[in-house]
Design a protein that fits this description.
12 helices; 344 residues; alpha/beta; two-stranded antiparallel ribbon
Amino acid sequence: MPFKSVADMPAVGLGLWKVPQAECAEVVYQAIKAGYRLLDGASDYGNEVEAGQGLKRAIDEGLVKREDVWVTTKLWNTFHKAEHVATNARRQLKDWGLDYFDAYLIHFPISLKYGEMILLSTLGKTPLKNFLSAVDPATRYPPGWTNPAGETEIEDTPIQETWQALELLHAQGLVHHIGVSNFMATLLMDVLRYAKVKPSILQVEMHPYLVQRELLAFLVWTSEVTLPSFANLLDRLLIGLREQSWIELDHPKVSLKPLLLVHDVIEGLGKLHKKSPAQVLLRWATQRGIAVIPKSTNTARLIENLDSTTFDLSAGELETISKLDIGLRFNNPAAIDPRISIFS
């Protein structure tokens, strides 16, 4: 029987961002074998086919049934127009080999051009041949942030149009829950004004260097007014474990502060509780009702992450970790193009 509500979603899941295609099927299979029942993907990650293969293997071998595993994925920026939402969602379902997603999120509140052919001769250029002004999925999938010329092309599709298209998917049973990712409070307020199906999930970057107390306070208020529970809306945390991914991307902000995984406060609490720094960071989130989706391709660390809910931090320890907040954000599209400064 499928999950009845977002409240039934597991507290610890596997994030699939930056899991290589060649490893993804095996990682997903091993994660399920280890006990994971939440997978968090996106078309932009470029590994949904492989993730689906890993899930299918686990189902075929009798490790789980489809309804035992919560699968979240996301709609990329290129597909915000109503006529593209359903087409892309169905492609993603096919890639995963599934009949439905447990949750489907708008990945960013950013709409990019889908792609159109332009004749160079109309621009006074030679030789005479066509090129894509943006990226059609038939040419490159996932489309990414830029066109073949390396330019970001913005499309003026309102979030309301995209959200209503998601509501249709929900009505058709193709997605059981709909939500948003990388949205701030002002945009959530707007969605809540017109949504017939309220967003039940918000996925954001949040870690001890970016605690987002104001956003948390807003979500508590919102849950009391319009949504079933606080945990239902705020159910994703991109936490310190993702620092390694930012290191791999050579992110300039990584060197500004000690990595959370080697921070004296986190290491000290780990020694006190006989847990790893990663487990302390994860517990900081889950103990406050926030689900986490750490990424790992190492089976031992997968098991360690899943075991992070077997101890409790004191209220004082939770606050000590939260006081590390310096407003340090890694995931900011403004670095790509100032016109998409969604967190400004």
